[in-house]
Each structure stands twice: as structure tokens, then as C-alpha cells.
Amino acid sequence: MKNIIWNKWILAACLAGSCVSAGAQKMVKVSGVVYNISGNKKTPFSDIAVDVYAIKTVAEAKDLSKILNSNDPEKMMMLERESVTHTDENGYYEIIVPNNGALIFKAGLNEVVMEKVDHRMKIDVSIDDGQRLEGITVTATRTELKPEPKAPRLVGNQFMPYNTFDIPERMGNNYSRLIIQPYILDCTTNDTIAFAKPLVYDGKEYKLTQERRMGFNREMDPLTPFVIKDRHLSTDAMSIEWCDTIVVPYADHNYSCFANVGLEDYSGGYIKTFQISTCEAKRPMKFLDYFLAFESMKLEDYPERPQMEKRNTQDRISLNFEINSETLTDSEDNKKKLANLRSKLKSIADSPGAVIKEFHVIGTASPDGSYGRNKMLAEQRMKRIEKEITSILPPYTLERVYRNPQANVASWEEVVKLMERDGKTELATQTKEILNKHKDMMSQGRALKALPNYKSDIIPYLDELRTVNYQCVYEIYREPNEEEIMGLYAKNGANGVYTRYEYWRLFDLIKDEKELEIIYKKAYEASIATDAKRPWVLPANNLAVLYLKQGKIDTELLKPLIDRTVYITNYRRSNVDNSRMEIINPVEVVSNQLCMLIRKGDFEDASILAKMLPEEDKYELLKAYVWALGGYYQGGSTPEEVKRAKRTFETIRKSSPRNEMVMYLALENQEGDNQAERLLANFPENEAMTWYFKAIISARKGDSEFTNTSIYLAECFKRDKSLIPVAQNDGEFNEEIIEVALSMSDF
User: Fold this and answer.
1) Are 301 and 631 in contact (CB under 8 A)?
2) Of 190, 310, 332, 663, whose CB count within 10 A is highest?
3) What distance in Å separates the CA atoms of residue 77 and residue 452, rounded to the nearest whole number?
4) pLDDT tens digit string along 287-344?
5) Strands of 230-381, DSSP E
């Protein structure tokens, strides 16, 4: 077998161009059939393989013919066997040779047949194999157990190893026991994952000898349930076909299967360990193209009730007065402000959750005129407004309010500030110069009144200064507003302690996803600390959505929010005293957990959750992904499972051209491979995956397609080097194919 593989490697390398000489010879692929004409019959060679040599020149071919005809073993060993192939079971061959070279055909000890290529691409030859000795049979006897590792199959979490244990003649006997204990290893961590069901074969006298010589109690034997009842161990050779399905934790890991094989009798025993499956598994669904839709919960669908809290707050208002008067200017703005002020104070006074703590009124007069007169005017304005406003408060409330009325006269410097506020820099500078020349308010006023622009430019600012301001400080139990919540967050950040309502508002107010992730997590953890049995679903679900977007996997986050004893989503259930309703298994939570499990590769668990999702079009594809990736797209033990498998296959097949290819290849049968090969005609030649699919289909046809499989993989690797490790871990291809493909892709 190794020579055949080696020669195929040489053939593949020649196809890639490595056998082309520096001259101008053109390489051609020649094929044909070698016929046996012994006994006046013309039939293709089938019982032996005919060696076919490709020689660069006719002269070299004549020299090689003499050596081959000599049948001298020493001379034969000196030959360079770089360009040689063998006929298959139908006498067919293919080989690369220069178009002006020659072919030599050698069948056993027969004389060679030489054919000049002469630009031909099909050459059939006939050889009389009558000289071959008949009736000689060489029999090889297996003397030890040595199973060759096979490529297992991995679909979802189902690991399916298989092998054949060929037990040699006289390895066992009638009074011995054979135990085969397969176990699974994770190729990444080298940890033992699981033990498969053991195989136990007893000789017909095993029980008797154990009882006689060792006082053996068969009822205490833990292996008794696993003894194969209808087949006994003996001195005869036996072949044991074995396969099993083991659920593994991670669908994206590689696994291998080993087996401890033990033989024991009354005198003792021995154990040997064999690797019976490779780490390179066949993964039919690894190229499935799927899209996961994540579902966030809307804040308005899960509102939180605010908790009333005591808060210190204050209000301010300004009222304007006529010149030299305690009368308010007759403006709509003044009327509206005064009415609002009375209403607000009355509302606070009447509210059971509010207490007025302080009330301050500050009366201000403009600086023009006599300071004494202005001061008195300010006091009059202050007292009038204070009396008018506080008259609406009940005596009980008014007695407990701290009041500190004030009256003052604005300075001319405040006029300058108002000018600068309005961008009147030149006017402000002119006014400053006058003020600097005069120190007291009266003389400053007289100097400014002398200006020609006094009435037009300065008096309007004096009107602004004739005001009464009030400040009311009160405590009130109320829900926090947006500004207060964001103010609290700005002060304390993610480390702050917030009420559930404040968290709920922050979910909407915070726009940065990194900050939002922290807040979601803190809110969820705070809810668990308060009531571990009823975690807060809103932040948990929306945190899961952020994780899914980022590629993070956390299947524990939503797990406490799913009740598997309730087999549906959005089930409404009342609590013990019927005081409130709660939603069990919100559909967003279940679908997001499903996405998490798909990402993790836990298709066993995912398939259970998929059954909870409602029969709606929006979830049809998601459920099909779960069942397809988990391997539930074929067969089934019940009519319901068969129907689901068929629907899954069709749903995925129709989702995209690539998925249609994947689903047919996943069938792993001739019909599926044929359909996949027909689909290849519609795939673009310049894409790496097209060539990878070609290589899979070719590899499944057997050793006869070794060369084509290598070429297809090489074309794939040239287009996308990232697929090299994928192929190296794919049980569809053996090491020799990968080596040849890698060497060909370097040219």
C-alpha cells in the first residue's frame, strides 16, 4: 500500500510539473487499458497490477527495457522509480509522459512491451501472460492484534468512532475472556472525556474455570451485563466490527478514540492500548453558513415603578417692576410667572410628600437716582411680593418656614456686565472709563446721564435690574428625573449604588455599549443578591445580546431564567396570592440562549430549547440550524422525528447555494455525493471553497481519485491558505493527500 501511495505521490507531482525537464518537451497525460491475451482471450489485467513506466526518450526506454527483461533483482533495485504507475483492477492506467517519449509495460516476469508515445494520448497494449505460474497461493497469517486508526465522524456533539478488531488465531481460547474498553480523549487537552460501552467475549469454559480455581461469583462480576451472549471466544480467528456514538462537550474540538484490549484467564492476563480513531474527524456540517438573530427586550415592555425618595430641591423666579415704583410691570411674562409661583407653592404646601424648608425674597433696585431712595424702593418691592406670595400658604406651614428677606441696590458695574453679555464691547468700555473716573454711585449716574446715548443704550439695562427674585428650598418625596439620575451617574459611575428604577432609566440614557454592558451586569448581579430565585430578566437578556454581538459565550447567564418544566415560551403565570402575573420563559431569553448554545457547540442542549420556540416563521431557520448542526437532519425513530429531519434538511438546503451543497455532502451517501457534484457546476471557479468541495467529492471516490483530490486541494490552498489547517483536521483526507496538495500548491 505504501508503494502505491508513493507512486501516486510521484504521479501527482508530475501532474503539477515537477517531472518536466529543462528542454522543450511537452508533457501529456496518456491513458489506456492493458489487456491479457493469454489463452486466445483478450481481457483486461485484473488479477495482477502491470507496471507502467514513463520514459523521457525512446533511447532511454530501450536501455530500461533490457534491465527489466533481465529480471535481475540487483539491477532492478538500482532503477529510479520516479515515473511509474500501476494498472487498476480494470487494467486501466494514467500517466504523465513527454509527447515524444516512450512507455514501458511490465507484467510480472513477462517480457516488457515498449510503446513510443508519438504525440498520442490513448495507448492500449496487449501482453501474453501465459508464462505466469498458476496455482501458487501465498497466505499471510495475522499473528497480533493491531487495528489501524480510522477517521471518526463528528456531527454536532455526537462523536461516532468505528473500527474492526481482527483477533488473530490462537490469541484466545475456550477458558479466557476478551475485554475491549474504548474511551474518548480530547485531542486539544488530552483529557479523557468518556468511556464507551465495553465489549466482553467469554470462552465457553471461562465461567467454569473461574468458579473452580478462584471461587468466582459471576453475580458480583461488573462486566456480566456486557458479555456478548451469542458469540464465544475460542482459538479461532475472529473479526469484531465496532461502532458507537458518544456525546462530547465541545463540537469544535477534535477527539480521538483509544481502546484498552485485555485478555485474561484463571492464571492472569495482560492489557494493551491501541488508538482506534484519528484526531481528524469527518465534520459534514462545519461549512454550514448560518446567521444568528439576537433579540433584545424593549424597556417599555418591562417597566419599573419608581420609588419615591426625599430630595432637596429649589426654584427661582424673577419679576420686573416699573421705574421708581413698587408696581409690577404689566407684562404677560410677569403675570405668568406670578401665577406659576403661587400654584407651585400651593402644590408643595398641599402635597403630603413635600415640606417647604426655606423661602427667600430678594428685592433689587436699579442704580440710577438716590441710593437711599433706591434702597427703600427695593425693600418695598420685596415686602409686597413676599406678602402676596406667602399669603397663599397656611399659617401652620408659614410658621415653620425659614425666611430671610433682603433688599439691595444694583451697582453700575452690573450694567457693564449686561453690556458685555450682549457683545457691546465698545459701549461697555466707554461706561467703564466713566465709572473709573467717579467713585460713588450718585456721581457715576450723573456722568452717565450726560451721555447722548443714555436713553437708547443704558436705560434698557436698568429695566432688567429692577427685579424681585425668590428662592424656595423644599423637601419632596418624588421619583428622580433624568437630570438627577445622570447627575448621580456622572458622580458615582458604574460603581455607584442605584435603585432598580434608576438602573432601568440608565439602560435608556447610556448610549456607549461598553458602559451599558457594565451597567447591565451590575443590575443583574444586584437583583440576584436581592432575590436569587427571581433574577432580573431585562438586564440579563440585553447583556446576553451584547455578548453575542461581541462573540462572547456565557451559557450560564440566561440559564436561571429558563424553566424547563414549562415547555413553551411566554407562559403567563400568577403568583401564589394572584397579586401579579409573571412571564415564564420569555421568547427572547430562550432564542438568545439557543444562540449561545450554538456558539458553544452544545447542540444536545440546544435541541431541547429549540422545541420550546413557537411555530413561527421567524424562528424556523434558527431551529433548523440547531437540528442540522446537531445532526438531526436524517432518519429518526418516530414519525415526528422523521418529519422534523426532512423539514430541517429542506429548510437549510433552501437557505443558500452553499448550504445546499453542505447538506447533500452531510448525507454521506452516493446519492448525496452525486447531487453535490451536480451543484458544483454553479459554483464560481475562483473561490477556494469550490475546490475544497471538489476535493471532498473526489476523495470519497477512493484511491483511484488520489491525484485529482490532491490537485483540487492544491487549487484550494493557493486561493485560501487558512483552509490548510481545516483540511489537515478533516477526516475526509489522509496525510498523503495533504502532503501532495501542499507540495503542489507551492509551484
Assistant:
1) no
2) 663
3) 126
4) 888 888 889 999 998 888 776 655 555 566 677 777 777 777 788 887 888 788 778 7
5) 238-243, 246-247, 255-265, 268-277, 309-320, 354-365
Between β-strands 581-584 and 571-574, what pairing exists: parallel, antiparallel or unpaired? antiparallel
Question: How far, in Å, are 400, 467, 515, 540, 637 from residue 602 at the CA level?
Answer: 68, 74, 30, 20, 22
- In which band, very low, low, confident or very high, does the pLDDT at 130 lie, cut at 50, 70 and 90? low
Q: Is 59 exposed, middle or buried (0-12, 13-18, 19+ CB in 10 A)?
A: exposed
- pLDDT number for residue 523: 93
Torsion, Cα of 651, 653, 657, 663 (10° steps): 140
Consecutive H or E run containing 201: strand 199-202
At 695 the pLDDT is 95
pLDDT at position 134 is: 42
Classify residue 323 by burial, with Cβ atoms within 10 Å: 0-12, 13-18, 19+: middle
Q: Is the pLDDT of residue 19 over 80?
A: no
Half-sphere CA count of 734, side-chain side, radius 13 A: 15
103 - beta bridge partners? Answer: 54, 115
Scan for cell 456686565, then name that residue. 417
Average per-residue pLDDT in the chain? 83
Q: How far apart are CA 735 and CA 726, in angstroms?
A: 13
Q: Give the cell for residue 23.
A: 528542454
R_g (Cα) of the chain, nearest Å: 47
Cα of first residue to Cα of last residue in the chain, in angstroms, is: 27
Residue owning grid cell 489463452: 39
658: left (phi over 0), alpha (psi -120 to 50) or beta: alpha
Q: CA neighbours within 13 Å on the CB side: how many for 230?
A: 1
**What is the value of pTM for the model shown?**
0.56
Report how far residue 21's alpha carbon sits from residue 57's, in angstroms, rounded to the nearest whole number. 11
